[in-house]
Amino acid sequence: MEGKLRAFLAGAAKRENVRVAISERFVDEAGQPQLWELAPLCAADVQRLLAEPGRETGKPGRLLLQLLAESVVWPDLQEAELQDSWGALGAEQLLLRMLSPGEFAALQRAFVELNLQGRGLGEQVAQAKN
Fold this sequence. Notes:
With 130 residues, this protein is mainly alpha-helical.
């Protein structure tokens, strides 16, 4: 039994960031798309966001925007120079100003793939019910 328990210890759990091209508009010196890096979130991250005072999570799409901003590791959405260049105040507003609707959808797909292991939420709920 002890050996089986090791698989559930924090150090054994797989939590790897992913790097993905969200847009062809952001390129390096060689013209290659810059990769965005997203970190997986855990249930505690979501609960913390929901519990933060002053957070407006009741508006449609607001929680998703907060989760996306929390997950993005690169580019650093908290970087003042980046926010200033887009006229944004905060990571969430920066995402909305930086990304086109299609790019935002690509970021959302990458987030869902990372945090739901590529399965749709409906599929996960159905599997949990069985």
